[in-house]
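Box 3.1. Reading complex inputs
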Amino acid sequence: MTDFSFEILKEDKNSKARIGIIHTRHGDINTPYFVPVGTLATVRSLDSRDLDDLESECTLANTYHLHLKPGDETIKKLGNLHKFMSFNRPIFTDSGGFQAFSLGFAREHNINKLGTIFTGEKRSEVPEEKFAHITDEGVNFKSIYDGTSHFMNPKKSMEIQSNLGSDIIMAFDECTSPLNDYNYTKLAMKRTHVWAKESLEFHDKNQALYGIIQGGWFEDLRLESAKYINSLPFDGIAIGGSLGKSKADMHKILDWTIPLLDKRPRHLLGIGEIEDIFECVHRGIDTFDCVMPTRIGRRGSLYLNPESGGNLQNKFRLHLKRAEFKEDPRPIDPLCTCSTCKRYSRAYLRHLYKVNEIVYFRLAAIHNIHFMLELMKEIRESIKNDSFKKLKDKWFNHP
Amino acid sequence: MTDFSFEILKEDKNSKARIGIIHTRHGDINTPYFVPVGTLATVRSLDSRDLDDLESECTLANTYHLHLKPGDETIKKLGNLHKFMSFNRPIFTDSGGFQAFSLGFAREHNINKLGTIFTGEKRSEVPEEKFAHITDEGVNFKSIYDGTSHFMNPKKSMEIQSNLGSDIIMAFDECTSPLNDYNYTKLAMKRTHVWAKESLEFHDKNQALYGIIQGGWFEDLRLESAKYINSLPFDGIAIGGSLGKSKADMHKILDWTIPLLDKRPRHLLGIGEIEDIFECVHRGIDTFDCVMPTRIGRRGSLYLNPESGGNLQNKFRLHLKRAEFKEDPRPIDPLCTCSTCKRYSRAYLRHLYKVNEIVYFRLAAIHNIHFMLELMKEIRESIKNDSFKKLKDKWFNHP
């Protein structure tokens, strides 16, 4: 019905890493893959032609945002999200729950929408009671755009995602914060499990539905959630936050969870630092989505290969604001083949960044997304050639 | 020395319109031509690859801005402006005087640099005494970026433009406001004439230098200025503001001035509405520069051909903010062949505009600049085919 399937091409001998292909009616995604986030039907500062030029195999849009602006019914009237944004490859959507819970925070603090919408990192600071009210029935929340009141539950989320016509959709879940205690996290997990079944019942059967594992950073809850979500007939499995307070916590959560899952595709929500990509592919994750490349790009941080100076300490980032680049005629990363590096110098990009020229955001996004997609290609090649560990060592321990 | 020359291919029988080619060492400009303004070494929201894709034959950068950010000496160290911004076609620069006089205003009112730098329209509101002090020696002014004090005079302006390495440079002049009286306008014109000779003396002889006619909206001053500037060995002649308080004033100024000029290329500074283009080409102008297409685009106004609903009353503009476009699947202008119109709907562009997505600015700029360049092509063709008047009638009187 969905034309959706997942094919595992090879499993690594020394880790849980694997290469595969997610087949959808809008084309294939080669895994492991990093999915660029196109919150409002655009990867911030890029258009769909840029995504084509970057050979991006897919994108992920936000149900919450598109439900509010321009409205999922508007998008349905115009065809679907693919037609709306003129992107003819697979599109993921999230369930909308996460932003519904968390974005009131930004609204209260009057954070400018342009370039600075919160999409989750500060979730622990969100005073949920005031901006979103969660019960077993669903979530009442206020729009970040105009303060109007809205309601979302599994049925509604499935309906919105059906209107959007995305290829891969997410079950409606409650994402907890690392600050939530055991009892609340358990309650939210139980609710998520009820909502998982409702999402299965109500979702558009032309769309591939991923269930979401919750349970915070508590081992018994994660185990229970993994077993339960894995027992349901989802097309794929996503692992939701909170992923704990540290990278070590996140690794533990994956180590607990993934051995309980069968061979369906596995998505890790909202993760995307380079170190994380390696660690999570190692632990068996197939796809990631994250706003990191575009967000850090806007703030002047551009990715560097290990041979060009990137390492764990600098998070593989060059910081354009530094005076040393003022007259530097070299491209950001001399090894990079992106259209930004082919044409522009560090000096020119630094100038555009320092004077807030709009075009800078796009040139930075092109570099950082190209970089992530090339990294994923390198990772897939390494798994194919039994050299994933060697590649990881090169990135983590380059002199 | 400059590899600069101007060839007139044909003069219209019914008007002063003419087609020609400006030859420079970085290539040719077919006139009449609209020169997109790249204030800070980027046409706002576009990169040089976009300019190439638009087949833009040239650009005009601002001496004032580049002197301050990143500094003309930095650009010289990196080669020149062409190399800095990776644009290998002819570049104009203005003299820097106009912004030096006028931009303190924006600074006092704390206007955000992103997207809203003043570049002249509000000049009449500028309290010159406080932010810039003009004498016969030159102008002392404060930087819009950091309030630091700077000085500019003809010698300094020529030195900066030499460092930038642009192909066509402008003499240092004093641009008056329509609010200035006869006596002040005369004084400023006399100063401009002295500075014209100094500019000729000090300019880099590898660059083509345009003299600037001043004199406000006073006939005798404009006549005097046109005769004097035309008598000097400039490579081209520019007509500077103030151009009066109305379009009729501007037309009168051109009608007084242009008959006094020989066959050198004529540039009109800072003008660029569609109606103006026709009226000024008619009166013998060869090149224009203006931030209009990108600025109005950022504000949601996109150009329309007459057959698509554009006319004098709506200034050939569609206003995206209108609710009627919310679910409109058509391109901005169905007759347009730009990359924005080829791929995106009014509905999608309106959505991006309404939620302040950065990419909107670029897609709008591509449409509006493409539109202007196509219009100029159409105008050149019409002069070639003796149908300029017919074309103007079509645009001005389309039912």
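In summary: The mean pLDDT of chain B is 92.
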